[in-house]
Amino acid sequence: MSYKNILFEIKNHVGLITVNRPDKLNALNGETINELEDVFSSIKNNPEVFVVVITGSGEKAFVAGADIAELNKLDVLSAKEFSEKGNRVYRMIETLDKPVIAAVNGFALGGGCELALACHIRIASDNAKFGQPEVNLGIIPGYGGTQRLARVVNSARALEMILTGDMVSAEEAYRIGLVNKVYPQSELLNSTFDLANKIISKGQQAIRLALKAVKATDNMSLVEGLNYEASLFALVCGTEDFKEGTVAFLEKRKPQFKNR
Ligand code: COA
After folding, report:
1. Residue pLDDT, tens place only, 208-241
2. Would you say 168 and 129 are in contact if contact means Cβ atoms under 8 Å apart?
3. Would 260 be classed as within a structural domain?
4. Same domain, 175 and 118
5. Is the minimum distance from the CB of 24 to ligand 1 under 6 angstroms?
6. Which domain holds residue 239?
7. Closest residue (by CA) to atom 45 of ligand 1?
8. Is the same domain home to 72 and 184?
9. Helices (H), 22-136
């Protein structure tokens, strides 16, 4: 599939997705959501991609939300489909077995904030602004904001953002745990790639199982999660990378992981 609204390239095992509608501040229209669905399905089956980075085109916005011109046409039936579709695509991102890092380079509003929330790690530029401004439009978040925001920051913070529609700065987002790190805008992509490359330098079997185990906390009790961790721990101890990692330590050399 060739894309109209996103760019996709693979650079040394990093799949870089850029939402590319800068004249509309990268707002997500239906076509862009379809393209994201397609690119994430292809990434899932592409052994070349170890880590995904998603960002927005230009210096102003990551994604300024769902496309309000399309939102405006929704009725009760089509709104349900709209929300379910977005949730399905964002859930694909959240459950991808490869780390997905949001490089938030400006406004991350509504569906844009929700997109960042569906990613596993969020890195922001110093000009980034986060918000769930749906109430300003007479609606509520429809791509998971009411659920994920309260899980990432605390419920009172999430409610403050959702009920007021106010934006928070990158600095404030860092303070409340909404983003992992903040960099000057000129350094955002390089710093995000440094992080991606650090993850890529590890054994990928361990990376994927660690991701799977941590994401399991979404729907498991502590006891179920501990049992699940034990089974994944056993699995990873059957890999060549486990032997290599431990032998390399004992031989005081760097491991050469083969991702097997
Ligand atoms: N959907 C559709 N178009 C959008 C958009 C969105 N979510 N966000 C921005 N755009 C468009 C604007 O309509 C404008 O298009 P135009 O040049 O054809 O008129 C263009 O992007 C630039 O936006 P503009 O509003 O002129 O930039 P700004 O710097 O003055 O303001 C924002 C930036 C982000 C504060 C403002 O665009 C905004 O509030 N956007 C909507 C955010 C929102 O409510 N998102 C949640 C949707 S559920």
Report:
1. 999 999 999 989 999 999 999 999 999 999 999 9
2. yes
3. no
4. yes
5. yes
6. 204-250
7. 65
8. yes
9. 30-44, 68-71, 76-94, 111-118
Judgement on whether residues 102 and 134 belong to the same structural domain of the protein: yes
Nearest atom (ligand 1) to Cα of 68? 1
Question: Ligand 1, residues 5, 24, 25: which to mutate, most atoms within 8 A of Cβ?
Answer: 25
From the number of C-beta atoms within 10 Å of its C-beta (0-12, 13-18, 19+), residue 90 rates as buried
Among this protein's residues, is 114 annotated catalytic? yes
Q: If you take atom 20 of ligand 1, which residue's CA is the nearest one?
A: 24
Give 176-220 pLDDT, tens digit per residue. 999 999 999 999 999 999 999 999 999 999 999 999 999 999 899
CATH number at residue 115: 3.90.226.10
> Is 244 labeled as catalytic in the residue annotation?
no
Closest CA to 190 of 116, 128, 121, 123: 123
**pTM to 2 decimal places:** 0.97
Q: How many domains does the chain have?
A: 2
Query: Nearest residue CA, atom 18 of ligand 1?
Result: 24
Query: What amino acid occupies position 167?
Result: M
- 110-157 tens-digit pLDDT: 999 999 999 999 999 999 999 999 999 999 999 999 999 999 999 999
